[in-house]
Amino acid sequence: MKKIMNKIRGYFTGEGVTSSEIFTILLPVMIDQFFLVSFNFINTAMISSSGQEAISAVNMIGSLNIFLVQIFSAIGLGGTVLIAQTFGKKEFKKLGKLSAGVIHSTFIVGSIIMLLFLIFHQFILGLLFGTADDLVMHNARIYFIGILCSYPAHSIIEGINGSLRGIGKTKESLKNSLIMNTLYLASNFVFVIVLHQGISGLIISLLLSRYLTLGVAGMNLYRQSHQFNLTKQDILSIQPKEDKVIIQTAIPFAAEYMFFNGGKIIMQIMIVSLGTSYIAANAISVSWIQMAEIIPSALSTALVPIIGQAVGRGSIHDIKKLTKTFVLTGMGSFVLIHLVMLPLFPFAMKLFNAPSELIPLIFRIYINTLIMHVLFWSPSFILPSSLRAIGDGVFTTKVSLLTMWLFRVGVGYVVGIKLGYGLIGLFVIMTLEWGIRSIVFMWRFKTGRWQKNIN
């Protein structure tokens, strides 16, 4: 057993970083992902008691929410890369202004998004999901307004967490996420299950969890301020130079997330056109499938500061070794996770109150995704995280946009809608797109063209 543990530590050890340092970053992110995804799973199961219309509304707005949240999340991620690289170079005096710039930028962008979409929400929902049933649209409008009102607090939390991850303080960012998600789950139980408030209960829970966590995250950042050389003056004054650098760094991340998730919204529109029962089937399928992505998603997130710091050290050896280790670990984790999840599928369908006529469809979707998870998900999503941290974000963005819009959306429309293969056809095309992305990213990494970004 000791030999096995030593071998594992060897895979996760670089020239300038120990396995303990890597696991200190990775494990809190993994726990964070577990609570984030499992709470989404439980949340969908809770709202299922309010009927297919409620599930459908939450699922529709969920895709739009992800699209918008990832805009200011991308700024937090861009800040993580800059702070990690600066930290790796041991230029500690610059960290305070960088951290303040990340928080300012995420807040400004989050607030602008909130105001714009509050003004135009009815037009946007009608444009995107106008074919949905009236009750679904009514629930969707209420839920969307509630989500938008949470963005100022949520954006600042993303900025704080991005800063903390940049210097490897993932335990601190984990505390913020755990508090936010625990408050959300507990409030959902009270307002949705006990008080039967449905969509309104979800909104109350969301706002309570975000704004209460904002205060906790602020105190958490204050306790770590000496690590950043962060002062009160940094927080209270806008730093145009730092803000500009942060936003420029975040643009490739934001562009990729926006256009990638924009494609997902188009896919959601296609699913809406299939009817309420298929929207519900998609919501249940996605909630279940995402459980398998907890560990690989954590690997993808944790790899950014790890590779960013390796870039700061100028260590090509660590970049190559740790990227390969994380990708292979992601593939192995999918095998183990699905061996556990597959026998639990019937129990999960009971939790979701899944209509019996939809269960065979959901199972076919799951089996297709299971196979493609193991083969292609990790090189498709973990590998580009490394390339972005290196500074090769323009390439990853171009690839993601082309595969999403030409293949997932274009071919998906033909196969799923025009040829009549429906929801299963859309999922097959989505997972095939993972395969295309993985081939391109593996080729890019193997050629070593990204090395031009290493000082």
What features would you describe in this structure?
With 455 residues, the protein is an all-alpha fold. 86% of the residues lie in helices and 0% in strands. The protein has 17 helices and no strands. Helix 2 (19-47) packs antiparallel against helix 12 and helix 3 (52-88) packs parallel to helix 12. The longest helix has 37 residues, at 52-88. It is globular, with a radius of gyration of 21 Å. The relative contact order is 0.13.
Kindly state the mean pLDDT as a whole number? Answer: 83
Task: Figure out the total of helices.
Answer: 17
What portion of residues is helical? over 70%
Class by SSE composition: mainly alpha
The rounded distance between the terminal residues' Cα atoms is 40 Å
Inertia-based shape: globular
Poorly predicted regions: none
Let me know the number of strands: 0
Order of helices and strands: HHHHHHHHHHHHHHHHH
Most strands sheet: none
Strand content: under 5%
Structural Rg? 21 Å
Sum this structure up briefly:
This protein is mainly α and 455 residues long.
Helix and strand topology:
Blueprint lengths: L1 H10 L7 H29 L4 H37 L6 H35 L4 H16 L1 H16 L3 H25 L3 H26 L1 H4 L3 H5 L3 H33 L3 H16 L2 H20 L2 H36 L7 H32 L2 H26 L3 H26 L8
Helix pairs in contact: 2-7, 2-12, 2-13, 3-4, 3-5, 3-6, 3-11, 3-12, 3-13, 4-5, 4-6, 4-11, 5-8, 6-7, 6-8, 7-8, 11-16, 12-15, 13-14, 13-15, 14-15, 15-17, 16-17
Features of this protein?
0% strand; mainly alpha; 17 helices; 455 residues; 86% helix
